[in-house]
Design brief:
Elements: H1 7-14, H2 16-32, H3 34-50, H4 53-102, H5 114-125, H6 128-135, H7 139-149, H8 151-198, H9 200-205, H10 209-261, H11 267-289, H12 291-311, E1 327-335, E2 342-351, E3 356-360, H13 367-375, E4 382-387, E5 390-391, H14 397-403, E6 404-407, E7 416-417, H15 418-422, H16 436-445, H17 449-453, E8 462-463, H18 472-484, E9 490-494, H19 502-517, E10 521-525, E11 537-542, E12 545-551, H20 552-566
Parallel strand pairs: 3-10, 3-11, 6-9, 9-10
Antiparallel strand pairs: 1-2, 1-4, 4-5, 7-8, 11-12
Membrane topology: Multi-pass membrane protein
InterPro entries: AAA+_ATPase, ABC1_TM_dom, ABC1_TM_sf, ABC_transporter-like_ATP-bd, ABC_transporter-like_CS, ATPase_T1SS_PrtD-like, P-loop_NTPase, Type_1_exporter
Domain ABC transporter: 327-568
């Protein structure tokens, strides 16, 4: 039984019937492959000496039936393997894509080509190499038949099989590591090219095109050199195996002739010996020829296993009551992707449902990392983030996703229509038209509805990856609408006004007021703090540490008092207290640096 938590094991177990039947058909095929040999043997030993035309006709009819059956079985075997490949794709492609989306960004460089490796694995499962592996166990059958002709012929076939197997083992030993290194180098080169193509506009604008072309050519040359080295090593063994098999086939004919001269075998056995020895050795040669693909398939299997190990076992938490937005961050620390330093240190604060928080601080203070941790995008090294008292990992993923609206620092849209992007692609899961009302509501709330209607196809306008087809400001409004879709009780905005014009910022401020009236908990990271005019609380971060936290006006007063006391200008970006309305704010204590 396969491990229920192992997607690869489950998929292979589901295909087990296909492989078992393919192996069974291989058994019948190898028995039928004896038909031409027996036909030749009977023609030379029975038909020719007796001039038996009727016997020849009967033997020919039997041969034709055997060959037609052989062709049918071979077709069925191939179709079984193709079906197994399709079943693997159906059962594993989804879990692989899901696992890729769960892998932390730090470990994603290697996994971006896992699907390409998976396709290599599937194709190998239907290729010549696997068919040869199915035929390989039947090589002893042909050696036994050779023994029935004469022990010397069987000995020649056995020695030949041992020699070819030895060369194949040397080939595997000598080429496995070079092929592995060549594949890894090629995959890294492809990954680098993909990343550069994704930023081709920036590359061209900064005059980096020729430099990047040269860099990628250098990577390709390094990869090509490793591939050539691996190919040269394999070619030597492959050529030797081909030459040895041809030599053994000819030697079998010569040995048969010698035995026939001595009267130890018949004339028919002379030609049958050559065919049998060739058939006994052919699977070994085919396996060696397909060895590179077999090694790649094995490496692909390991890559898939590593991917699912990185993802870890999937938890299925209990469905909880829909949250109202109460947030608690408890002693949160976040490490760098390399794990060599802490980006955030001991962050702790609470927000009641419906409260709003502004986060400010100099560049590199960890503001974006903090909101990513609150949204569950980056894991915490210690501490926890709790929504309505439950840690984020204790919420079912889909339920938590519906409860959080997140706007990243850079607008991030996907290929598809504007409606699909705003609806978080829930259009893939629900009947057409079900989400239209909610999509329009979210777009109106953030002021995106009017400009969407002016586009050629309105909400059905197709976007490219990254929102190609929209201006940066328009893309940011679509991102805001996506965050507001479904009326989540917790809204996290990372510099939501960075690309908005004055009108867009006014519409955003009005939307935030409406959300506050609806008791939505709001967290806003901002450099332009005009958007923080109505927040309840303010947090000041520096070097990953929470230096101040409390009522907005009280924190601003402390920020302005610190540099004044030192005779310096405030060093927080755009955080002069006159940039924010100094109206009344709820009285919250200030939390100083610990």
């Amino acid at each position: 039984m396969s491990d229920p938590s192992d997607p690869i094991g489950r998929a292979i177990q589901a295909c087990r019937r296909h492989f078992v039947h393919a192996a069974l058909f291989s058994a019948f095929l190898n028995l039928l492959y004896l038909a031409p040999t027996l036909y030749m043997l009977q023609v030379y030993d029975r038909v020719v000496p007796t001039r038996g035309a009727a016997t020849l006709a009967m033997l020919t009819a039997i041969l034709a039936t055997a060959v037609l059956t052989l062709a049918a079985l071979d077709l069925v075997r191939t179709r079984l393997l193709v079906r197994a490949s399709a079943r693997l794709d159906r059962d594993l492609a989804g879990p692989i894509l899901d696992a890729l989306l769960r892998v932390p960004a730090a470990g994603r460089a290697r996994t971006t080509i896992v699907l390409r490796e998976f396709d290599t694995f599937r194709q190998t499962m239907t290729g010549v190499g696997v068919l040869a592996l199915f035929d390989l166990p039947w090589a002893p059958l042909y050696i036994i038949v050779c023994f029935l002709l004469h022990p010397a012929i069987a000995a020649l076939a056995l020695v030949g099989a041992i020699l070819l197997s030895g060369l194949s083992w040397l080939n595997e030993r000598g080429t496995a590591e070079p092929i592995k290194n060549a594949n890894q180098s090629a995959q890294l080169a492809y990954t680098g090219i993909d990343a550069t193509l994704a930023a081709s506009g920036v590359v061209g604008a900064l005059g980096m095109r020729q430099a990047m072309v040269r860099r990628h050519l250098r990577d390709r040359r390094a990869s090509s050199a490793l591939t050539i080295d691996a190919t040269f090593r394999s070619a030597g063994y492959t050529s030797a195996i081909k030459a040895l098999r041809l030599m053994l086939q000819s030697l079998a004919l010569g040995l048969g002739a010698l035995l026939a001269i001595e009267g130890k075998i018949s004339l028919g056995s002379l030609f049958a010996a050559s065919l049998l020895v060739s058939r006994a050795l052919q699977p070994i040669e085919l396996v060696n020829g397909a060895w590179k693909n077999i090694i790649q398939a094995r490496a692909a299997y390991r890559a898939l296993a590593d991917l699912f190990a990185t993802r870890g076992a999937l938890r299925r938490p209990t469905q909880l009551p829909d949250p109202v937005g109460a947030l608690s961050v408890e002693n949160l620390a976040v490490a760098s992707p390399a794990g060599d330093r802490a980006i955030l240190h001991n962050i702790r604060f609470d927000l009641a449902a419906g409260e709003s928080l502004g986060i400010i601080g100099p560049s590199g203070a960890g503001k974006s990392t903090l909101v990513k941790a609150i949204a569950g995008i980056v894991p915490g090294a210690q501490g926890s983030v709790r929504l309505d008292g439950a840690a984020l990992e204790d919420w079912p993923e889909e339920q938590l996703g519906r409860a959080i609206g997140y706007v990243p620092q850079e607008p991030m849209l996907f290929r598809g229509t504007i409606k699909e992007n705003i609806a978080r692609f829930q259009t893939e899961l629900l009947p057409p038209g079900v989400l239209d009302t909610e999509v329009v509501r979210a777009a109106k709330l953030c002021g995106a509805h009017d400009f969407i209607l002016r586009l050629p196809n309105a909400y059905e306008t197709e976007l490219g990856w990254g929102g190609v087809g929209l201006s940066v400001g328009q893309a940011q409004r679509i991102t805001l609408a996506r965050a507001l879709f479904g009326a989540p009780p917790l809204l996290i905005l990372d510099e939501p006004n960075a690309s908005l014009d004055a009108d867009g910022e006014k519409q955003l401020a009005a939307a935030l007021e409406e959300l506050r009236a609806n008791k939505v908990t709001i967290i806003i990271v901002a450099h332009r703090v005009g958007i923080l005019a109505s927040v309840d609380k303010l947090m000041f971060l520096r070097d990953g540490k929470m230096e101040l936290f409390g009522a907005r006006n009280a924190v601003l007063a402390r920020l302005s008092a610190k540099p004044a006391a030192a005779g310096q200008a405030p060093d927080a970006v755009d955080q002069a207290p006159d940039a924010v309305d100094q109206g009344a704010a709820p009285a919250h204590p200030i939390v100083p640096a610990q």
